[in-house]
Amino acid sequence: MSVRVQIPTPLRRFTDENGEVEVEAGTVEEALRALTERHPDLARHLYDDAGRLRSFVNVFLGDEDVRHLDGPATAVSPGDCLLIIPSIAGGLGAPAAGESRR
Amino acid sequence: MSLLILTHRHRVAIERHAAATYPEECCGVLIGRAHPERREVLIEQVLPARNEREEARENRFVIAPEVVLAATRQARSAGLDVVGYYHSHPDHPAEPSDFDREHAWPGLSYVIVAVEKGEPGAVRSWRLADDRSRFEEEGLEEPRAATRPARSVERSARG
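Structure tokens for the assembled complex are given below, as produced in the milestone run.
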């Protein structure tokens, strides 16, 4: 089914400056995979080297973070709109106690 | 090299936020206009945000996605956009860490302010390379008369 994925402004350089991309998908994960298949240069900014969605990348279905739904397996319906919203994280180089460097 | 244009008033606001949160890291959202044809970004608003980390706020910060979403909607309602973020480095240089790089996106300005023993120091701005391999520093200047922001309003970024 056809769903829309809204592209955050800083990543539009990888989607030919399109702010919204329509893809065929049944779940959130399928929608993101379809998006990165169409725009491969986007992939490294959404996924890490192991192919996992980067921890700071969040996907909203409407106003709901899909982590509060079924995560990547969240079903999407025709006409749904997915938003890619980052958490903004960072800090000093030294890891906190008990925290991995990543 | 690209250029971030930041008024003195906004720079002071960032420095004061950094000093007020020391020894913890402060963070906030930068709203403005990008002019890619001139390789310039003009900051119109500085929105202080809450560091959402439950611990380790001395060397880590998080701005929740709900805050980012709200700031984005607020910016766009004013014909602007989120163009970057700022945070502080308590007792460390204003240079991005590997952790900063791993959590960044290209196409944004990342302003870092060094705070030494509670006193703000260097303020520097960085942009992530498209291949994610490194940050590249961008120039940081006050506006010339022809490029002064239309308005300069500070509010807090809330989720």
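Strands of chain B lie at 3-5, 27-35, 40-49, 60-63, 81-90, 109-116, 119-128, 135-141. Chain B is about 20% helix and 40% strand. Further analysis is deferred to the final report.
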